[in-house]
Write a structure and sequence with these properties.
Length: 375
């Protein structure tokens, strides 16, 4: 009996399959790294943004904002969040800061607003003072209202010319993505203060919202800008298969729902006309079956030189961290699926100033990937 009791006690000390002890060393195809859980107990942490070397701003989809001290691992509530429509896939979404951000500068947000009982995606900005958001400004309330709870987007990215980009999904109504009279199914480009750049591709058309940069998107859930090569990258959900990584170019049509590599939910039928059509862009990479991407990050840090220039995406359905290697000319030439044993829906990604990778999970955790010598 004593032996059985001792054996049971020892078994309780062993890690369960899929459980990530904190910290632990993981070996990938290219590097070994340490995976460590930083905190937990959050409510669907949707967006992450570093506002200093040790302070990580976190949005929770239900409408709250937290500030994480990555050294002490303490969470502080932030006041001044907007009222959001937290239904279906909507709520408080992304948070992002420009690459030249310093303390006291503008912080950018996307969220879903209740507009006469329907949800619309909004781009806004505010400043943080003593754990409170002040000087809140709505930059663009998009024309994207529908009664569905689907496909709001919406990640934010900045280029080297002081422009801000963000995307909105088709809002659960497929024809929206080919309808240039609304913002749904599009990527927008604005000056950081919300003004419309005069060289936006549809700026001279009275029938098209001038903020639109590209269209024909289904549900953009990740966006990253490559400052070295001046490329805007987007990852978006397909239906049943056909998630896409796209290089976003001005005025281009990315095909949804006319072309797609995915199948209909109700049967093994192609969506639209098939996979190709003249005048519609092909993805740089497509995923079938779907991984259900939740974010996109271009790694530029020094902590993992082997990963520099790689794209990382959190996978929701297939529960892993997806790493894509790009060629010099922007082609997807390799893929690795990391942390499958973690068995978590990986949502948001952020690169810390020292080049570590932080990510959130829908179960409310924040993890960090750091070099082995930083254990």
């Amino acid at each position: 009996m004593k032996r059985i009791t001792l054996l049971l006690c020892l078994l309780t000390l062993l890690p369960l399959p899929g459980y990530s002890a904190s910290p632990r060393v993981v070996q990938s195809e290219t590097v070994a790294f340490v995976l460590e859980k930083v905190t937990d107990g959050l409510r669907t942490p949707w967006g992450l943004a570093f506002i200093s070397d040790t302070r990580l701003l976190i949005t929770e989809r239900e409408g709250s904002i937290k500030l994480l001290d990555t050294q002490s691992k303490t969470l502080t509530p932030v006041q001044g969040a907007p009222a959001v429509l937290a239904e279906g896939q909507g709520g408080l979404m992304d948070v992002a800061v420009p690459p030249d951000f310093s303390a006291g500068d503008w912080i950018y947000f996307t969220f879903v607003r209740n507009k006469d009982g329907e949800g619309v995606t909004v781009l806004a900005r505010a400043k943080l003072t003593s754990n409170k958001l002040v000087q809140w400004q709505d930059l663009l309330e998009t024309r994207s209202a529908t009664g569905t709870g689907f496909h709001f987007g919406s990640r934010i990215a900045f280029d080297e010319k002081a422009y801000v980009y963000f995307g909105v999904g088709d809002r659960g109504e497929r024809p929206n993505s080919q309808d240039l009279t609304n913002h749904a199914g599009s990527v927008m480009r604005l000056f950081r203060d919300g003004r419309v750049p005069p060289d936006n591709p549809f700026n001279q058309r009275s029938d098209v919202p001038p903020e639109i940069w590209s269209y024909g998107h289904r549900n953009p859930q990740g966006m990253a800008y490559d400052h070295a090569h001046k490329r805007l990258w987007l990852i978006e959900h397909g239906p049943r298969g056909g998630d896409e990584i796209n290089r976003v170019l001005p005025g281009r049509n990315y095909g949804w729902p006319v072309i797609s590599y995915g199948k209909e939910y109700w049967g093994p039928m192609a969506v639209g006309e098939g996979t190709h059509r003249d005048g519609m862009e092909q993805p740089v990479k497509q995923y079938t079956p779907s991984i259900a991407p939740g974010s996109l990050l271009l790694y530029t840090g020094n902590s993992f030189p082997a990963w520099r220039g790689n794209l990382f995406a959190g996978a929701l359905k297939l529960r892993h961290l997806n790493r894509v290697t790009l060629s010099v000319d922007g082609k997807a030439i390799g893929e690795e699926r990391l942390l499958t044993e973690l068995d978590e829906r990986i949502r948001a990604l952020a690169q810390s100033p020292e080049g570590w990778l932080y990510f959130s999970t829908d179960s409310g955790k924040i993890y960090v990937i750091k070099p082995v010598d930083k254990r």
